[in-house]
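Input (Amidophosphoribosyltransferase):
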Amino acid sequence: CGIFGVIGPKEPSILEDVYLGLYALQHRGQESAGVAWFDEGGALRLQKGMGLVHAALSQEQLSKERGSCAIGHVRYSTAGESSIINAQPLHATYSKGQVAIAHNGNITNAEMLKRDLESRGAIFQSTTDTEVILHLMAHEQDLPPIDALIKALSKLRGAFSIVALIEGRLVAARDPWGFRPLVIGKRDGIHYVASESCALDIVKATHVRDVNPGEIVIIERGEITSLSIPVKPARRFRCSFEYVYLARPDSDIDGRSVYDVRLKLGQNLAGTCPSPDGEMVLGMPDSGTIGALGYAVASDLPFEMAIVRNRYVGRTFIQPTQRVRQLGVQIKLNPIDKLIRGRNIVVVDDSIVRGTTSQLAVRFLREAGARKIHLRIASPPVRFPCLYGIDTPRSADLAAAMMDTGDLRDFIGADTLCFLKVEDLINSIDLPATELCTACFDGKYLEE
Ligand code: 5GP
Ligand code: SF4
Ligand code: MG
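Output:
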């Protein structure tokens, strides 16, 4: 999911900013979108809908609305089904006032907390893990809302980057492990919080800094107050897959440019997985392009854009059924035959999940007359499901969990297949291994 928040002097553009910010975060979720804000009379207002931002929300209406603080969310579901009931922001009115919250991540102990809350009388309205946070807050009757939120967050395990509106303030928090990204930006007297820095660029805000793992930031009247969640993790788990695939390349996460990391992944891949008889390098659009460029430069081979993408088709992975997913890839990608015919080609993609994309790509590259196809993957094999907010399938549907590289190469139909190593992933990101989550690659999950 993608989240966005803004607070500043009342002016009509604040809600327009949320709309623009969510638009820039669209790649993080396409199922639903929503905005919550406090209007001029101090009432909490919401607009939510299913589908892409432009379908779910009315820009015309939001641009006219006045408010001093607002949050927004684009969703792709990892916990709870895809329906309007689960669209965020979620809101609640409880004894201490009104709260709205939007969440990116996956709370691993949500079911346990939910059962406990239900046994104490809580009635859940959605099936999202996010609602647990609101109930935990409401159960802290003796605490002011911000303290109740801190108490609630300290009970959570797993991944949560959140933005919330509480008592006319914008609140942002990142879990103590730092799974999902979260950045702070500023333009004039207006402060922003966003999943990725590309959403700050669109509102012309400067990137102030990242929210730190375990930090709670409260923004009001132009002041930022920093508090912390009282949980001391043994190590961090910043999601390495954000750099591999999820984030936009024009974002910076935790001080690293996603573009630079992808280029480095490609360069390292060329070192680990050379292609001696390769004649040119292609990237699988769009996710493999930057890695392919890095690979081509490092191996001194020409880079060609010989696979063309229909830019009006969304991400294949997001589609629900296997049949639609398969069709999706064919509708989406088309090779330029004359560049490919009779040549030994190196194809770089960012990752293999079910193997569908690679299998279909190899098939159409063969049909286009490729002589040899060397498939190079700029991440290690995805062999374990993500528990922290990326919708990877269960192990049985992960191609690399079910087959070794030789069988997978045959299944896909490539002449050779080679993956990046976990060490190379870590050194491309250039953070210590104890700062990064690589669980979907090596099964090293959070043990707290
Ligand atoms: P596959 O076709 O092997 O299931 O998926 C791999 C392709 O899907 C890659 O090209 C990758 O860019 C893309 N992809 C889209 N969304 C996701 C996602 O959430 N996780 C992963 N691992 N890959 C994804
Ligand atoms: Fe990211 Fe993979 Fe860890 Fe999930 S398991 S948080 S996708 S690195
Ligand atoms: Mg892709």
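The mean pLDDT is 94.
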